[in-house]
Design a protein that fits this description.
69 residues; mainly alpha; membrane; Flp_Fap; transmembrane helix; Flp/Fap pilin component; transmembrane
């Protein structure tokens, strides 16, 4: 009986599964924060697309107004 208890205490295979579970939970939380609706990544991406859209719109307006003159 004592040898079985010692063997159980030396067995670390369950610890690996727990570590993977903690890692998966941490990664899921990180993905939620990064790609959430108000996350930093989404806000920066939305800002960059708005800047690009404004640049495209203003460059198109400049061409039209200089061609009309």
């Amino acid at each position: 009986m004592t040898s079985r208890i010692k063997q159980f205490l030396r067995d670390e295979s369950g610890v690996t599964a727990i570590e993977y579970g903690i890692l998966a939970a941490a990664m899921a939380a990180a993905v939620g924060v990064i790609f959430g609706s108000d996350g930093a990544f989404i806000s920066a991406l939305r800002e960059k697309f708005n800047t690009i859209a404004a640049d495209i719109s203003s460059s198109g307006t400049d061409i039209k107004s200089s061609a009309a003159n």
